[in-house]
Structure formats: structure tokens, C-alpha cells
């Protein structure tokens, strides 16, 4: 066995709403509020997923959804009543409630709902094991032309606020969206700078842009990154970030087998229950198959919680998740069986 394990978290994906104020050209998840497929999940729908997650031994409820949909009048016209009848003014208030529901089912919340204000972060932090926001890139790219929430300074500010709140944090780069390699280096340096200051970055996701059928318009000018691009990015990441930060790639977007030797240490959330709503055609590999493949290469495939072992041990996580983290973790901070 190699001396370091490759880690993953067993999760369910809860896409609270697919309405979003941003219009990232690569995104196949977002729907305009008027679109027939636009949704705001009901509590019953969320509960059904949580129940399946609990029954299959998942420990993470990953809430990823559209950013500030209330800025859109059509969202309020169509879904405002549903929110208000439940007693909430915003999707973030509703999500706080859904985090409590997840904890009731024995799952640890990890929210990534785009850029949040300090007050919104403060509302969600106690209810989350860890939280996340992809930096994406520090570059100004045309793929983000119509995206107030993808302004790099806004993303860096939220990542900094999470640091002030001592919230274990997941961030990362999305590559193949019109940025240069110099931009990779700059993005990684900004993340390391914040980690230096606050020590809260638990993992960095290196995500390769992947075309999918949900995209509004066919995109000709974005080319999906190659395996060689990903290897170069992994090597650069290893040279820029301190080794206490895990390096994560998504095993459904590119085969991890040829990437791990360059420094990948984590395969993120893998779900036996839900699809990857961001890349719906990219099926999750089976956990057992990954375990077999990785062990043939000499790696242990080890389950963690949505909060990485280092932070389990130092007690950095939302206070209201403590009872569950104690129950689910072993002495080393990994998943206890
Ligand atoms: O299934 C997915 N999980 C995504 N996750 C979840 C992640 O894979 C894991 O759940 C984390 O490692 C926490 O355990 C994200 C988490 C973030 O904080 C930010 C971005 C992502 C992006 C994805 C994604 O595209 N698909
Ligand atoms: C949840 C995260 O998913 C990523 N994301 C959004 N669209 C795509 C795509 N087509 N391919 C890969 N990643 C994507 C962004 O980085 C976002 O922050
Ligand atoms: S990637 Fe996130 S922010 Fe961008 S359009 Fe899709 S849902 Fe909105």
C-alpha cells in the first residue's frame, strides 16, 4: 500500500433550485425561472432523498443550487408563494431549514449555493459540517460575462468570510472556460494566500469543464481540457498549495486512475443515490469498483466525512453538527463503521 490513502465521501446531491442569477455559458444545470423545467424542491422531495441517503449509509447531504434566485422577478412570481407559505423569505433561509432536516436524518450538510453574504454564511455555518464555493478562476472570462456572482473579488471575499468563521471550506478551479495557464497559477496563489491567513481550506477541486446536454446553446469556443492539461494543473497545485489541502478530482468527469499518481488525494462526494445534477450524463463509478481498481495500484480507498479528518480532530465544524460528527467519526477523524 502507498503511504497515503485516496479519500471520498458518500453523499446525496440536493439541488434545491435550478434558478440562478448567473448565466455561466458552460452550465447545463440552470434554467430560466419561466422554463418548464425550473424548480424549487419541496420539503417532501428533499426528505425522500435524505431518507434514501440514510438507508444507504451516506454521511453527506450536499446542497448545491442556483445563486440568489430571488433577484429574479420571475422566480418570485413562480416560487415566492411556495417559499412564503413555508415561512421563508429566501432560498438560503429555506436551506437552513433543510440542513436541520438533514441532521435529523443523520446526514451532515455541505452547502454550496454560490456567493453568500456574511449574514447568510453566519446563518448556515453552525448547521454545516463544511461549506463550499468554487473560485472557478481569478480571470475575467467571457463565459462569465453575465454573472455578477462570478466576479473573482466576490468569490474571494466569501472564501475569506468563511475563514473568519473558522468553517472548513471546499473551493477549486474550473478549467477550460477561457482562462490561461497563468490564470491557473494566479487562482491557486489567491487560494493559498487565504489559507495562509485562516487555515480553513480543506480541499481544492480541480474540475475539468465537461460539455453536457443541458447547456442552453451549443458552445463551440470552449474546449474540454485534456488529460495532459489536468496533469499539469495537478502538478502546479502541488507546487503552490501546502500539503494539508486535499487535491480533489471528480471521478465521473475524467478517469482518476491516470491522475492519482501526480498528486490527487481525494475523489469528492460519490453518490449511490443521486445523479450529478451538474453533469447529468456523467455517471458515478461504483464505490466498490473504485476500491478494487485503486487497490490494484496500491492505494487504499478510504471513506471520510464531508469535513476532512484534520478539522474533525481540531473541532472546526458547525456547532450543531457536533453530535453527529462524534457519532460518525473514528479516532483518526475518518468515517467510523
Ligand atoms: O457531485 C458533485 N459534487 C460537487 N461538490 C461536492 C464535493 O464533491 C464533495 O461533496 C466535497 O468534497 C465535500 O465532501 C462540490 C462541493 C463544493 O463545495 C463546490 C463545488 C462542488 C462541485 C460538485 C459537483 O460538480 N458535483
Ligand atoms: C458546482 C460547480 O460545478 C462546476 N460546473 C458547472 N458547470 C460545469 C460543467 N459543464 N462542467 C464541469 N463543471 C461544471 C462549477 O465549477 C460550479 O461551481
Ligand atoms: S454554474 Fe452555478 S452560478 Fe453558474 S449558472 Fe450554473 S448554477 Fe448558476
TrEMBL record:
It catalyses: 5-amino-5-(4-hydroxybenzyl)-6-(D-ribitylimino)-5,6-dihydrouracil + S-adenosyl-L-methionine = 7,8-didemethyl-8-hydroxy-5-deazariboflavin + 5'-deoxyadenosine + L-methionine + NH4(+) + H(+). SMART domains: Elp3 (SM00729). Keywords: 4Fe-4S, Iron, Iron-sulfur, Lyase, Metal-binding, S-adenosyl-L-methionine. InterPro entries: Aldolase_TIM, CofG_family, Elp3/MiaA/NifB-like_rSAM, F420, rSAM, rSAM_sf. It is an enzyme of class 4 (lyase). [4Fe-4S] cluster binds at residues 20, 24, 27. CDD domains: Radical_SAM. The FO synthase complex consists of two subunits, CofG and CofH. This is 7,8-didemethyl-8-hydroxy-5-deazariboflavin synthase.
